[in-house]
Write a structure and sequence with these properties.
The complex is a heterodimer. By secondary structure, chain A is α+β, with helices and mostly antiparallel strands. Chain A has two domains: about 180 residues, no CATH class; about 80 residues, no CATH class. In chain A, about 65% of the residues lie in helices and about 5% in strands. In chain A, strands 2-3-1-4 form a four-stranded antiparallel β-sheet. Chain A is rod-shaped, with a radius of gyration of 35 Å. Chain B has a domain of about 60 residues. Chain B is built from seven helices and ten strands. In chain B, the strands form two sheets. In chain B, strands 6-7-8-3-9-10 form a six-stranded mixed β-sheet, with helices on both faces. The chains are: A alpha+beta, B alpha/beta. At the A-B interface, helix 6 of A face helix 1, helix 2, helix 3, helix 4 and helix 6 of B.
């Protein structure tokens, strides 16, 4: 070792150790291994999975409710009860004529005897003779979605001109279904918000833990003049990558779950249980909005993780400034 | 550069550990800070490094009242001060090269812009062969020199060193002192807190002696 002291950076001699000048890949300032990454990744993955399922369920229920709403609104039912001394067939014809004459009505179908028997069979058993029973006659009226008829006028005309006639536009059922669906959607969003809050809290605890475990690094960074946003950035980067890994795993698993259910419904075809599910939830498949929402959720949770850790670090550093006990002795 | 006016420090409700400190550190000055263990050397260094607030009195750092500095302004002030800790405070997961380059890295500088300076400095402090080694496998003396290199890499206006030769043999201690003197000649103010009388006898400099919380200065 030479004893000629010289301040580095002054006159540079020719360097015989050029091999030392190679480019180096710098290690992260906050070591990845010091953060309880696998546990937090798993928690974020589970939270994302559950949140995606909730989001998917809310989307399916919302879409289904809209489907019910438009299906039911596309059809009304006219009921003609038998009245003593009045020819039922004539009344049905009259009701059909009145309905067909309305603008916005696209078709009227009289429900035939066989269909009526099928409808009543679960309650009255097989081998029914409808002639012996005062069974009302039903007519389904298809209406134009875009240009619906004036239902109140139709109702009034039917009641005035056809004995025993009444009209049901399914409004009462529809209102109940919509109310139920909306309640479910609101409940789903509340659950979703709770999950997001839990994720944020988990990340806060994990960040605090990581900062405690790396307190000596934060202190040194302070001493060498690192700004708070630099230190926060070091942690934020770690947590964002961690959040992205977890949320991608959870989100992709949720998407697979929906795809598997959709395939199951399609595969089971006419199976009664599948049919029952399909009755309520259509094909039990999410709309494109649901899939896009889940993908956005993956990135949103990663961003949420990063932002949460950044604010936690900044808060911690704010309390550290001017209150530190770094130098002992 | 630094001005203390009637500064006192008290921890909790105990007695003042530092009392009525009034002195200046001028640009380009060199001083030894000495005193018995527990005399308050480290507390004084902490005051100088703005990691401790005085209980009373005024501290002016680079023309600014330290009590008026916003937390966000502290990094900029600290970048003008280099500090060597008694316990080195090197980061074990980083190599010596990365440790020494840390002050430049946190300023957002590209690695290629400081590579030569860092390597030259490490060669200069005799750590050429350990550039890519981690601190944990090095001796105390080697770690001490790496800590000094880290404090010097950004050519601070003020260098604070807490027992910088405590882990060095006399030859290396003398060499380190020469480094500090050269640094001082290039304009950096130096404060070396030390017990080492041999070291102080090697260079005629201002002595700040702490005795039971009081400061006596020998110009």
């Amino acid at each position: 070792m030479s004893d000629t002291a010289d301040v580095p950076g002054a006159d540079q001699p020719v360097d015989p150790d050029m091999h030392l000048m190679r480019e180096r890949k710098l290690a992260p300032i906050v070591p990845t291994a010091s953060i309880a990454s696998s546990a937090l990744t798993l928690v974020i993955a589970i939270m994302t999975y559950l949140a995606s399922l909730t989001l998917g369920a809310v989307t399916i229920i919302g879409d289904t409710a809209r489907g019910w709403q438009s299906d039911i609104a596309r059809e009304i039912t006219i009921q003609v009860r038998p009245v003593e001394g009045v020819d039922l067939a004539q009344s049905v014809l009259e009701a059909s004529r009145i309905a067909e004459g309305f603008e916005g009505v696209t078709g009227v179908t009289v429900i035939g005897e066989e269909v009526m028997k099928d409808l009543l069979e679960p309650w009255l058993g097989s081998g029914l003779d409808l002639e012996e029973l005062p069974v009302p006659q039903l007519l389904t009226v298809a209406i134009d979605d875009d240009d619906p008829p004036d239902l109140e006028t139709l109702r009034r005309k039917l009641i005035e001109n056809v004995a025993g006639a009444s009209m049901d536009d399914h409004r009462a059922w529809l209102d109940r279904l919509v109310a139920m669906a909306q309640t479910t959607v609101v409940a789903g969003f509340l659950i979703f918000l709770l999950m997001m809050a839990s994720t944020v809290l988990t990340v806060i605890f994990a960040t605090r833990g990581a900062m405690s475990g790396n307190a000596h690094i934060i202190e040194v960074l302070h001493f060498v003049g690192a700004e708070r946003r630099f230190i926060a950035g070091e942690f934020q980067h770690h947590f964002m990558m961690l959040g992205l890994r977890g949320s991608a795993a959870g989100g992709v698993l949720a998407l697979l779950t929906f795809v598997v259910f959709a395939i199951w419904i399609w595969w089971r075809g006419n199976d009664p249980s599948a049919e029952q599910a399909a009755t309520f939830f259509g094909s039990f498949s999410m709309s494109l909005t649901g899939y896009i929402g889940t993908i956005l959720l993956i990135f949103a949770i990663a961003a949420l993780t990063a932002v949460t850790s950044r604010f936690t670090v900044l808060r911690f550093l704010g309390t550290l400034d001017r209150n530190s006990d770094e130098i002992e002795g | 550069m630094i001005r203390f006016d009637n500064v006192g420090v008290r921890y909790g409700i105990g007695e003042e550990v530092l009392q009525d400190l009034t002195f200046r550190l001028e640009p380009g000055s060199f001083q030894f800070l000495t005193g018995q263990s527990g005399a308050g050397k480290t507390s004084l260094l902490r005051l100088l490094f703005l990691s401790l607030q005085p209980t009373r009195g005024l501290i002016e750092v680079f023309g600014r009242d330290s009590s008026a500095l916003e937390p966000g302004e502290l990094p900029a002030v600290r970048r003008r001060i280099g500090i060597v800790f008694q316990d080195f405070r090197l980061l074990d997961h980083l190599t010596l090269y990365e440790n020494v380059a840390l002050p430049l890295r946190v300023r957002g500088q590209e690695e290629r812009t400081y590579r030569r300076d860092v390597i030259d400095l490490l060669k200069w402090v005799g750590l050429k062969d350990c550039i890519d080694a981690h601190p944990s496998i090095l001796s105390g003396g080697e770690q001490q020199r790496a800590a000094v290199a880290r404090a010097l890499i950004d050519q601070p206006e003020l260098l604070l060193a807490d027992e910088p030769t405590g882990n060095l043999d006399p030859v290396l201690a003398r060499r380190l002192l020469r480094l500090f003197i050269e640094l001082n000649r290039s304009g950096t103010s130096v404060v070396i807190a030390t017990h080492d009388h041999t070291l102080m006898e090697q260079f005629d400099a201002r002595r700040m002696i702490l005795d039971q919380g009081h400061l006596h200065i020998h110009e």
